[in-house]
Structure formats: C-alpha cells, structure tokens
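We now fix the convention by which a protein and its fold are recorded. The integers have meaning only within a learned vocabulary of local backbone shapes. A record is reproduced here so that you can trace the correspondence yourselves:
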Amino acid sequence: DASERSGLLLAAFTGMARVVPLDVGYRVADLISDGHRVLFPGRREAVEGNLRALVGHGDVAGLASEVFRNYGRFLFEFLRGPEVPELDFAIEGREIFDRARERGRGVVLAIVHTGN
C-alpha cells in the first residue's frame, strides 16, 4: 500500500541522512534542491514572486536558488535527527534560562528563526 511504501522511503532516507558525513549530506541536499527548483517551475515561480515582493526588483533567481538550497539542507538536518554533534553553536545567556527553569514553573522561550 502507498502509505507503507512512503514509510519505508522515509525510513531509508532517514537512515542515510544519519550515516553520511555532514558535508556529503549537504552536497546531496544541494543537488536535490537544485533539481527540485528546475523540475517544478510552478514552485520556483511562487518563490521568485514572493522574493520580488520582499526585495522590490525582478532579479531574484539567485535568491530563489538559495531558498531552495536552504530548505533542502533543513530537510537533511531534520532527517538526520535532533543531535548533530558536528554543528557547533553557543547559547548566550543560558544561565538566565537555567535559573528560570529551576523555579519549577516553566519557561516561555521566544527566539528568532535564522534558517538551518
């Protein structure tokens, strides 16, 4: 059945995403994203139209390519799982968050989304 095949495909892609080196996964994600952008002109045109509304001019092809690649890399990271030890980042002000959690009443955390 179709849902079973979809589940198997998802499991296969997830398994592959978890074992390939990070740089290889990003290159594959970029290639797939470039193919998606080319093979689905309606989606590309929608992205380009949205970008034109944001930047105010018609030359948005390069930006559209970046949008597709960014999303492809996001999907790769999502399939790879919640722990990506190769990615290094720092949390500034973590002690404020920890002190608030220690009070035992919960914490509301509002942060910006910056892509991958």
About this structure: The mean pLDDT is 87. The chain is about 70% helix and 0% strand. The first helix runs from residue 2 to 19.
